[in-house]
């Protein structure tokens, strides 16, 4: 059951459908990504989203402005420990400037009552900056 909620979440993110995205998070969910990450910088948004509404807005409205097409996630490993799930994955996409994007991620999801309560995202921020800003941005 707990593994399926994370798989459902990634399918919901890819759909950009606010209702599907909302359905996988608790009302008080949090999403934390590295400070200064290139996605947050490029979209002029925070790296720490608090609340279901903020997370849904990000994945349904903001994320598609940068990652415009061919968004795909390849799972490298999924590890469960009760209400905690760790996902190793590679995300690929086409950026809004037409360039390809591919980077490795690690996500740690904490569940509560069968929904995602907290997500921590880890990513190679230097590689992300190079792909999004062409190597012109200061490294994290």
Automatic annotation (TrEMBL):
<protein>
    <recommendedName>
        <fullName>SnoaL-like domain-containing protein</fullName>
    </recommendedName>
</protein>
<feature type="domain" description="SnoaL-like">
    <location>
        <begin position="6"/>
        <end position="118"/>
    </location>
</feature>
<dbReference type="InterPro" id="IPR032710">
    <property type="entry name" value="NTF2-like_dom_sf"/>
</dbReference>
<dbReference type="InterPro" id="IPR037401">
    <property type="entry name" value="SnoaL-like"/>
</dbReference>
<dbReference type="Pfam" id="PF12680">
    <property type="entry name" value="SnoaL_2"/>
</dbReference>
